[in-house]
From TrEMBL:
Entry superkingdom: Bacteria
Coiled-coil features, chain-numbered ranges: none
Gene3D superfamilies xref list: NAD(P)-binding Rossmann-like Domain
RNA-binding among keywords: no
InterPro entries: KR_dom, NAD(P)-bd_dom_sf, SDR_fam
Gene Ontology MF terms in the entry: oxidoreductase activity
Protein's name according to its UniProt entry: Oxidoreductase
Ketoreductase domain location: 10-194
One Pfam assignment: adh_short_C2
Provenance organism: Streptomyces qaidamensis
Entry keywords, A to Z: Oxidoreductase
Length: 247
C-alpha cells in the first residue's frame, strides 16, 4: 500500500524510534507519506518491526543503532539516516532516559547519563540535522510535562534535563528561522507505554493529576508531532499533550 499524505517525499529520523512514542511517531509520519529512519540502542528487533510496519505502508525505512549518550554517535546517526534515505527533512528528538529518586541518592554517573542523552544528545543531533536540512526543515523535540509541573519529589534530575529543551528549542527557532527551518517542543503527560503502563503500580496517581483523568496514548502524541511536521508558520513553541496535567 502506498501512502501519499502531507509529508509525501520527505525523509524523517525518529531517535529512540523502536518503541512507545517513537515507534508510534515513525508509523504516523509514514502514514503521512514520509520515509523514516528509526534509531535504537538495544531494541534491534523492535526497531526492525517498526521498519516492516513502515514498509507495509509503501514507504522506505531503515533502523540505525546509536547511543545518544556518545557524542560521535549522536551526530553520526543523523548522517547515517540521511545517507540511507537520500536526505533529511524532519528530525524528531525522541530518545531519552529517566532517572528518578531522592536528590541525595543521585550519583554523578546518573547525572551524566541523563544530561548526556536528554540534553547534549538532542543538541548534537539537532546540530547535525541542521547542517543537512534543506529550506523548510523541521526539528521536533519530545520533552515532558514534568518540565512545566513537577508533581512531587524525586524528579529533580529528569525535570532539569527536560526543562533545558525549552531554551534549546527557542534558540534553534531563532537561529534557523532564516532558512525556514522550524523547531518546536512537544510535552507529553503520562502516556501508556511499556515504560509507564496505564495499569502500572503508580498509574492511578498519575492519571488523577490530569484534567481528563486518564493516560494518553502514544498515537495521541504522534498526531501532534505529525501536525508540527507539516506546519509552516509555527516555531519556537511548546505544545502540551498531557490531558491537562499542567492545567
Amino acid at each position: 500500500m502506498t501512502t501519499q499524505g502531507t509529508l509525501y517525499g520527505k525523509v524523517a529520523l525518529v531517535t529512540g524510534g523502536s518503541r512507545g512514542i517513537g515507534a508510534a511517531t515513525a508509523v504516523r509520519l509514514a502514514r503521512e507519506g514520509a520515509d523514516v529512519a528509526v534509531s535504537h540502542v538495544n531494541g534491534k528487533e523492535a526497531a526492525e518491526d517498526v521498519v516492516r510496519e513502515v514498509e507495509a505502508l509503501g514507504r522506505r525505512a531503515v533502523a540505525v543503532r546509536a547511543d545518544l549518550a556518545q557524542p560521535a554517535e549522536a551526530a553520526a546517526v543523523v548522517d547515517a539516516a540521511a545517507e540511507a534515505l537520500g536526505g533529511l527533512d524532519i528530525l524528531v528528538n525522541n530518545a531519552g532516559v529517566g532517572v528518578l529518586g531522592p536528590l541525595e541518592t543521585l550519583s554523578l554517573a546518573e547525572v551524566d547519563r541523563v544530561l548526556d542523552v536528554n540534553v547534549r544528545g538532542v543538541f548534537l543531533a539537532s546540530q547535525a540535522a541542521a547542517a543537512r536540512m534543506p529550506e523548510g526543515g523541521r526539528i521536533i523535540t519530545i520533552g515532558s510535562c514534568i518540565a512545566q509541573r513537577v508533581p512531587g519529589p524525586g524528579g529533580t534530575l529528569y525535570a532539569m534535563s527536560k526543562a533545558a529543551l525549552a531554551g534549546l528549542t527557542k534558540a534553534l527557532a531563532r537561529e534557523l528561522g532564516g532558512r525556514g527551518i522550524t523547531a518546536n517542543l512537544v510535552l507529553p503527560g503520562p502516556i501508556d507505554t511499556d515504560m509507564n503502563p496505564a495499569d502500572g503500580p503508580y498509574a492511578a496517581g498519575q492519571a488523577a493529576m490530569t484534567a481528563l483523568g486518564r493516560f494518553g496514548t502514544a498515537d495521541e502524541v504522534a498526531s501532534m508531532v505529525a501536525c508540527l511536521a507539516g506546519a509552516t508558520y509555527v516555531t519556537g513553541a511548546e505544545f502540551s499533550v498531557d490531558g491537562g496535567h499542567a492545567a
